[in-house]
Amino acid sequence: MTAPAQATLAVSTVIFALRSDAESDFKTLWLPLVRRTREPFLGQWALPGGGLPAGEELAMAAARTLRETTGLTPKYLEQLYTFGDPGRSPGGRVVSVVYWALVQSDEAAHAVVGDNVQWFPADRLPDLAFDHNRIVEYALWRLRTKVEYSRIAHAFLGETFTLAQLRDVHEAVLQKALDPANFRRTVESSGTVVDTGERVAGARHRPPRLYRYNDSVRAVALGPLGPSIG
Amino acid sequence: MTAPAQATLAVSTVIFALRSDAESDFKTLWLPLVRRTREPFLGQWALPGGGLPAGEELAMAAARTLRETTGLTPKYLEQLYTFGDPGRSPGGRVVSVVYWALVQSDEAAHAVVGDNVQWFPADRLPDLAFDHNRIVEYALWRLRTKVEYSRIAHAFLGETFTLAQLRDVHEAVLQKALDPANFRRTVESSGTVVDTGERVAGARHRPPRLYRYNDSVRAVALGPLGPSIG
Question: Nudix hydrolase domain: which residues (chains A, B) (predicted)?
Fold first, then answer.
């Protein structure tokens, strides 16, 4: 067996939030990026993250570096994937363990925004540092497959939501418009959501119904390792 | 930001195969383990794996160490999870990127078995080195959630299979007996498999029908990063 080499370990986070987009009719996914203040890739945008200190647990390091760079503190971060191509970082191998979270808009609003931290639409990113464009592309793909079998709206929207809000989430993730009547039929026949009997407060004419997930339908969770992203 | 510390990187693999089990009525999941020939955990069983050389890609290192220790060469390995608790290895932090594969019995038969390599039933493992029991437990959990929405029988059985073989896979993964008639109804109504029109060759009386997955039902794949486990 070849002797193991030392490598630099880093953590990065992909944080998706749903936002209105002036350029399109439907909501889109946005994520916060941090401008690099040192080489390599000085001045380029990158995912929030940093190095892994010796005694710190991976998810803790991801949460800490996210908080330090953006002010964001999602309720939990799920491990997405580990990227370790030998050539992904100039000047020495860096293996990055990437975490992700979907956050609600009130949580997203806590982010510190300034010259060195900004939100970008996920489908119109600049050239990012390292292989971070590829990481975001992978995260988007995972989200698209996940939306079909998990409680993804819950992560973006909270406990209760209207069918229009749920459709917004699916449209943003799938990046296509969905027919409202077809969407309603599909969701209602799936049995995954139930009518709470309540309606949106404050709406004057025919306030929309509020739904919640059907707890008897098992969620896709993280199992023995902790809570889930959606 | 705290400066990144160097850490030792390792790769490990969890390889599941379906085998008949003398102690139970249904097939069970087995995996190959390798006896450690050095400290720490000298003499204990561990997942196949090894250190990550500087210039080697993660999945390549996983495939190479698996081949070197067990002789197994699965068609592809999927990244499962990265384990990095600071205390998981005595004498210095080791972060392990774990890959997994489901293999068919003909592939499993290629494994070199000897004093230092043996197959164990996944639900009756000895005390393994490091946190490898926890890693197997996590892999089993992922498999149980995956069986409900992916083409898992394909990975264990090949292109065509009987409904009894498909039930064997589900029973092994879910660790419970399934009613044959109910299972048949559920699978047939799901539309995920189609009758090939062929039957098992060689069976004399009512040879069972052969099924294959319905290609028009999208598989859960690895997307932009490569092929999928099931």
Answer: 6-144
